[in-house]
Specification:
This protein is an alpha/beta fold. Helix content is 38%, strand content 17%.
Length: 220
């Protein structure tokens, strides 16, 4: 397991280097922290140009001995870019190169052979969530901010969609006082709204800002 994430401090943000990059990167961006993934190998061949001195690098390697990451970190440090390392050992090669260390401590991996990255990757993603939450608190990230970046979600719809955006404007079930009860039921059924609206002969409200409605419950 080895990863690098780049965070932009705006103020405060990361660049991610490998495994849980998509999860951590997406979570940070969703909480107003611009971030992107850089593959260590590709960084050695030009992608380092994506980094800015105002960025921060989150380097994740459970063993702390990933050759891919350990080879790129010295070049990042040369540009005085802060590095946060996540690994199981503070004295690992990668952790010694970082400015800040976050431990990934587990008893054993969850797989049957206790070798394949399972528990460690889950913990790394949980640490990514914790970092994202800390950044939310630091910049007083509110429900309104969340909705701003998630307009398609439930919260976004609740805050931004108005009645006028979703209200039915055509083919409304309209009644006049001349309609019989039986006719009213037919109109309501055809309108599929469970109710109908009374209007005058000009299809206008009887009184300004005053609506007369009959619903199926009234008829029952």
């Amino acid at each position: 397991m080895s990863t690098i994430v780049v965070v932009f401090p705006v103020p405060g943000g990361p660049c991610i280097n490998k495994i849980s990059e998509s999860t951590i990167e997406s979570k940070l961006k969703a909480f107003w922290t611009p971030s992107f993934f850089i593959h260590p190998t590709e960084a050695m061949h030009g992608d380092l140009g994506m980094l800015d001195t105002k960025d921060c690098v989150l380097a994740i390697s459970y063993s702390g001995e990933s050759e891919e990451i350990s080879s790129i970190l010295p070049h990042i440090k040369r540009r005085n870019i802060p590095i946060i390392t996540l690994s199981k050992a503070r004295n690992s090669t990668i952790s010694r190169m970082g400015d800040y260390f976050l431990p990934l401590l587990i008893e054993t991996e969850a797989c049957p052979i206790q070798t394949a990255p399972t528990t460690s990757t889950t913990l790394a993603m949980a640490m990514g969530d914790a970092l994202a939450v800390c950044l939310m608190c630091a910049r007083n990230f509110s429900k309104e901010d969340f909705a701003l970046f998630h307009p398609g979600g439930r919260l976004g719809r609740e805050l931004f969609i108005k009645v006028s955006d979703i209200m039915q404007r055509e083919n409304l079930p309209l009644l006049s006082t001349a309609h019989t009860l039986k006719e009213s039921i037919v109109v309501m059924t055809q309108g599929r709204l469970g109710s109908a609206f009374f209007v005058d002969s000009k299809h206008e409200l009887f009184k300004p800002n005053f609506v007369i409605i009959i619903s199926k419950n009234n008829i029952r």
